[in-house]
Amino acid sequence: MLEILVTPSHSLLPTMGCVRLRPKLLCQISLVSSTGSITISPSQGRVFIHQPECAIVVGLDSTIYTISESQGMVEVSTFVQIPSAGGAPRPFSLSVSTEDNTAGSPADFEALRSHIIQFNTGDTVHNFTLTIANDGICEVPNENFIVNITVVSGTQPIFITTHRAHVIVNDMNEPECVPTVSFSSETYVAAESAGSVEVCVILNIPYSFVLEFTINARDIGSATAGVDFVSGKWKTYILPGATDRCINITILNDDIALEENENFAVEIVMASVPTLQQLLKLSLLIVTLLLSHLKRHCTE
């Protein structure tokens, strides 16, 4: 069992205004083992108090900053609240540093290392700029990094209310980053004797996630599934960093001599983005395949 012993060091004398700006020792605490079988290190500590009416209050003006990648930079503000007693604050300085999170420097932003902000007498706000890199890749989910402030100099008590904030780089706010897939062509032409036709799906921009979708071949008019082509649904995907995916659809040779060109439909019936399916805008395009049926013995 541990016991906590509190030993008053001295009584607190009343103060006038902010005469006593340094924190004052309130008491000393000790941890003692009643059985003597526990080693405690350290066994003593100190408790301090301060006068909040005498302290300068500083901080970041937000805990979250959101910026579109194409904006290139975000302005961050640090503020000062003048204490209610003791007059205007004396000069002091803050240090600003960034920290990688899901976004990393230098690929996603320009890092700050011990960037100094000097507050002089009477200053209440200072701004600094964080530079965002446009890497041309739409990250999902949005990436973020961290900015921190610390006090590095000053001659009076300084209390930081908000010392840490997240900067969110909002790729999904960019029009070109709305996930959109479509066929590479609205019409594909294939001879019946070719045996298959290649159909390609394209993505508008490289992404950092796997895009899954399903291609469906079905009757739409004159071509008949099972006679002229093989119908079905094929689940496929576009890998991170890629922008297209192609599949082959089987064409059947029915060996009918006198036959007009026929067609059937190929469509994208489903696509998914992990955790962000609601943001996917899909181009559901009907693709027509023209089957050339001109045989050697059908020249008349």
Automatic annotation (TrEMBL):
Alphabetical list of Gene3D superfamilies matching this protein: 2.60.40.2030
Residue span(s) of domain Calx-beta: 45-150, 165-269
Pfam families assigned to the protein according to its UniProt record, in alphabetical order: Calx-beta
Biological process, per Gene Ontology: cell communication; metal ion transport
Organism domain of life: Eukaryota
Keywords, in A-Z order: Calcium, Ion transport, Repeat, Signal, Transport
A Gene Ontology cellular-component term: membrane
PANTHER family the UniProt entry points to: NA_CA-EXCHANGE PROTEIN, ISOFORM G (PTHR11878:SF65), SODIUM/CALCIUM EXCHANGER (PTHR11878)
Protein name per its UniProtKB record: Calx-beta domain-containing protein
Species annotation: Geodia barretti
